[in-house]
## 1
Amino acid sequence: MVLSDSSIVVLALPEIYRELDTSVSGVTWVLVSFNLVMALAAVPAALLARRVGPGRAAAVGLAVFAGAGLACGLSDTLSTLILARCVQAIGGAAAVTASLELLPATVGSEQRAATVWAAAGATGAALGPALGGILTQLVSWQSIFLLQVPVALAAAVPILAVAKHEAATGVIEPELRRTGRPHMWANLALAMVSAAIAAALFLLVLLLIEGWRLSPITAALVVSVMPLAAVAGARLAETVEDARSRAAAGAILVSGGLAGLAFLPKATIALTIPPQILVGVGLALVLSALTETALGGRAPQAIHGGWTISARHAGVVIGLLVLTPIFTHEIDQQRHDAIDAGTAVILDSPVNPLLKIELAERVSERLEEQRGKVPTIGPAFEPLPEDPGARAEVQQLQSELQDQLDRGATHAFSTSFILAALLGLIALFPIALSKEVEL
Amino acid sequence: MRGRALVIGAIVASLVLVGAYLAAGGSSYEPEKVQNPCKPRPWSNPHSLGELANQFTTSALDGAACELGVTREALARALASPQARRRFAEKYGIDDEKLAQAIRAGLLRAVDDAEEAGALSPILAGPLREALKNIPLEEAIELVQDAKSLLGNLQGFLGLGSGLIERFLP
């Protein structure tokens, strides 16, 4: 749940953006703040878990996570929402890192615990947007956070027994608190790949909702391809033992999928599916392989797990902070180009010049009303002329203008997708170095 | 499965996807570029007063936009309403006098283009040029918006009888 939380609000962002009357850059901080605090708090939270015991750390972490989730759900301003997200991330960091220490008792071994924990991280990241989109559409964006309250509290109940046991038996042996240095190359690769994956989730959702004007639930259904593909990717991962090959193949697939999204030949949902399959399979392969590599042979697991959480969320932050200004600038530029191209379609059409100017006026008004966004152009063409010939001409114009807007909205994301794909490819360098240097 | 096969499979799948999307036009799926208004736009053979008026409007907008250094499309939207014109003036720093001069130049270019294309007789083009040289801004805008009425009124003004322009059309 916590690991899906960094991406669960992605589909709710357009709704938050409208309801809290903020900017694209402003709303991005709902995501960035959570990931930034997770990146900063993960290792200290893991150290704390070692000091006070993982049961107590996880129970307190889940309680903080639930309380902050309630505050998120009740927020009516962007600043209170961001503040609550920061607190939620602190609780989440404690819960996630402590859970890695608790897992071996449940699954049998530290190695198996690392595998399960890594797989949960990959699945959570992929599942988050779809879940968030469905809740946003069926209930509200607030429901995403409010629903987390009972789930987090329910998860804390069985851990309370462990916490009580820890309180009774005392704390960890001093020598166990000594830690080796983190696996630099695997964590660096995790950061880069996470930046690319964050871009894939965030940009694709914005493209679907803000660019192509899909409803959150439709967008959720579209992006649910990624978690489904991630499940297939996890099965594929089990057939290959070599973690470095899995990581490399995963990074290549994520990059290939992102490049596919950068070169969409038409604004059609179906064409987003093959790139999503590549990203989904890729993220399952690469996240689990790198997390296993970073944890492999290292103790204590919570601390090294903390480093992987830190690297992943730092990567998400870097990805969002680098790519958001690029695509907000691009979307503005493409909006202008699309409007000019659409106006050219109207001017070059055979309709009556007076009607052309009237349409240009209505289009101009729509642009003014929806300044800074990709406009919905339909109302500018209403009411349609009564004469059947003129009506057909105007409908043709509307369709051609919409095509130009679709082109602009789609192309606006291309540069960001290409940069994200490059990040995924750059991750191949630390992946290549990881085996020789560290393992 | 061997690790190498997995990596090769990932490379092949990525290349196939990107290659297929590029082949389907993915690299050029963007808004069509608008034409430089200073570049001549070819006239087709107008078969009615309406078609002539359409091309006249396009030429006039091109001419005026070229004078102002903006796109024809931005100017067309600006002329749609007084509010749109105000926004345009603020954005580009263009006052009414400058706009009037540009639109007059645009209308004269439209007459030249129409005459050069053989769509407007020199008998009509000469007096039309004279009439357009000092036309006030609001009337100039109306003429760009409603070239058909301009051309129709010209017939009446010159007393040449109805259907004269149509007779000069190819």
## 2
Amino acid sequence: MAKQIMDTVLRVEELTEDIYRMTMSSEFISKNALPGQFVNIKCCEGEQALLRRPVSICQLDRGNGTYDILFQKKGTGTALLTCKKSGDRLDVLGPLGNGFDLNEKYQRIAVVGGGIGVFPLLFLLQESKAAYKNAYLGFRSADLIVLEKEFGRSATSLKIATDDGSYGTHGYITEILKKDLLSCHYDMIYACGPTVMLSTIARIADESGTQCQVSLEQRMGCGFGACLICACKTKIKSDAVDKDGQWHYSHVCKDGPVFNSKDVIFD
Amino acid sequence: MKGQGHDIDMAVNIGGLQLKNPVIAASGTFGFGREHTGFIDLNRLGGISVKGLTLEQRQGNKPPRVAETPGGMLNSVGLQNPGVRAFIRDEIPFLRQYSIAIIANIAGNTIDEYCQMAEILSEADIDAIELNVSCPNVKAGCMVFGNTAAGIAEITELVRKRTSKPLIVKLTPNVLSIPEIARAAEGAGADCISLINTLLGMAIDIETRRPILYNNTGGLSGPAVKPIAVRMVYEAAQAVRIPVIGMGGIMKGSDAIEFLLAGASAVMVGTANMIYPDACVRTLEGIEQYMESHSLTSIADISGKLELNT
């Protein structure tokens, strides 16, 4: 059950251009949050950034009672977050959303992330008890790569691709995943990133007969299910098609952000 | 509650609708109350105006459905709701666990739909009907009625004939003359009017060169609209005898007091609920504190007590 709490900022650091990591102290979040869940943050007390900003939880230290969020400085709200100092208090709603299904029967898993979508996948890898955890991360270029060391430590194997070839394999990470699926099997693929990428991964998973969970994104309002703003198209039944009466709008904050890829209509 | 030796009476009667306090959760921001139960005791509220209902289930508009703007937000949710029958079957029993007034907010695509819903809801265990004739996010239908005095009069009259429940007509600010519209609603039999609904607005993504909302335009709400809303509540309260419910950017008690002074007998808190789940309760407590510190004993001591300068 989510709560509205005041968390304490411990540290804010810029990892690479416009990508920041904020470490927060929070007994409630660190005790209760699960991989895939997010927090909805009020970036200032007043009206400068009126709505809360939803940010996925990237790492969590249950023992120390802290959690990390990573975010891109994009607009007013995130700019305000970058100015927070150690000791500042932040009004946080969370943990929100449904989290990834980490059933222990999934022993061979792949996490596939694109750009800033990779962050919640680190939390997943750190909590997962799977025997084989392979990470596939795609970035536009080398200077946008973050958390490579952390992913390397938490995954059985790590493959990185960049759109411009400045690091790792030149090309899309989804192509590498597709190739790997020809020769190896995964019990579950967990994906997070741009919608176009998720759509591709969903198709690849389907073609290879692999189960897949995707973490969707949508502009949000309340973040806890009351306003119906963060709508996403989902099938009413898994075998339905994108046709009137066979789909409906679910909501990313309460039915998601994690969905079975077969249920999502990407359009 | 006690203040300075006097009991403070927060109860108000709005055109036959009895409320234990003047704070109502506005339609569209509070669902059917379920999500907020995790954060507040729903019993604290005077009432809830539920998510806008249509005759049949509605999926609503394609996302994005929100764009933040300076001190506010645009929404184009498009009345996603389970339909009036599902509301009666699934949500009324849930809400009746709490001692709050249930206001059914209704929006129709056609006059006939409004009439059908009025008839259906007349038999239901609700405390009032709020007529939404001003939803800017729906291509056809209710927008047509809310913009003119004649349209308001027509729809109010038709709904009035079909229900004896307290009837609140929710006014759109996207009109030339609020007093004229308010008088039209009163003349056609409204027990009460509520205003303002959202203002029509647009926000553009300068990189994609497209509006942020998929629907292109949407309804503006939040603190940015408060000055317009307060002015319109004042004008409406001056124009009619029936009670007025004020809304538009209320974030806290002092905002609510402005509306009450301007002539409202009750207030609705909307956008704030999305940001602070306890916004209604904070607003209520703010009103109580104001009354206590000014040694006031009832809402009537504040309603309409504005004194103009000139």
